[in-house]
Amino acid sequence: MTNNSILIDSHAHIYYRDYAGDFDEMLKRAADAGVGAMVVVGTDIESSRESVELAEKYPQMYAAVGIHPHDAGRVTEQCYSIIRDLARSSAKVVAIGEIGLDFYRDLCPRDEQEIVFRRFLRLANELEMPVVIHDRDAHECVLAILREEGVRRGVLHCFSGDAAMAAEAIAMGFYLSIPGTVTYPSNEALRNVVRSVSIDRLLVETDCPYLTPAPHRGRRNEPAYVRLAAEKVSEIKGLSLEDVARITTKNCRNLFGIHLWNQSAKIAYMIRNSLYLNITNRCSNRCSFCAKFDDFTVKGHNLLLDGEPSFEEIMAAVGSPEGIDEVVFCGYGESLIRLDLVKQVAAELKQRGYHIRINTDGQANLVHKRNILPELAGLVDSISVSLNAPDSATYDRLCNTPFGEAGFEGVCDFIRVAREYVPQVVASAVTVPGVDMEACRRLAGSLGVEFRVREYTEVG
Predict the structure, then answer these.
(1) What's the chain's average pLDDT?
(2) Partners of residue 275 on adjacent β-strands
(3) pLDDT tier for residue 2 given thresholds of 50, 70 and 90
(4) In degrees rounded to 5, what are phi and psi of residue 99?
């Protein structure tokens, strides 16, 4: 794995005696598996102290401090003070947890669990820290308490709810952490959750020494095995392992403040087996559904450029990649605004034998006030055009085109004419609620091109 594609085990209990005999070897196996960091999570006063000690001793470790709901009945006022002091004791303490509710084993009366849970949530709010939530058979109650206490930063660890709960938790601002149980043949429910939500809201974890993934079930779990959970997530999401590592590690950075690599803007960036080129921040439209208004990262890559790169800077960023499927002009802005540069770069990369694709809003002819498509002939192998609506009124409402009524007609004309100059033309639409996908599909068919649906919750 590359430096910016390393994994974080977001939930580990490596202070247990299970690791006493091979602790150093366990850490080496984790490093060899691409695990660059781990969050060591306390479950009581003693283990919270041990988590902080480990985080202070090892540069790749961070700590969370809290008391598990099983022990809620033993929590005193002094316990809250100790956890508060531990949280303040080191910059490497990144969360309050593991806290929550467990209505499966019921080792502590439920009303006592709820009281303690609320107190720790208030402590986290006081300290302005995220929370690590344990939730077992207490889904509705956990979400209700989080909502009532106004907590909006945290992770539901070892997520065990359904897709509806996942959507609700994400809407509240939470991340979901996926453990090795996602590899179990019988756990289709968790795989359905992974399918249903954006990878930008997922973490991966081991919860070691528990929940050992296949094919190691029956043995002690350890941080190296977080790679197996990440591999299953990549399979489910149709991404590379490097994509999942980069994105989930970026998610840990956003939640816990763990910075493992330079997050400066990218000109050239990989998703799956495609190399993307990001050459401008400028865009023709201001689409209401565009992800960049919420976050300037796509699949873990920072795409907000400090300036517009030159031909030389772009080619230096491209380098000499081998084994890629295609080079795609697609970034923070609309590439065809810089038409001359696109032609120059595409000509050079075509000479090297690369397949060239352009993702565009289809308004280049309106921007440049001429038909630019003949200029792409022989340079571009495929072009994907954002149709996004079946009619002018819907398009204008969603895309805020500066061209008024001409905007939608311009996109349709661009798609229709593109077939004469580009071997493959695809019209796409994002599943924005309320947009008639079948009407978009019929329109694409009438324009004589393929149609692709792009999920609203998945960018890139």
Answers:
(1) 94
(2) 270, 327
(3) low
(4) -130, 165
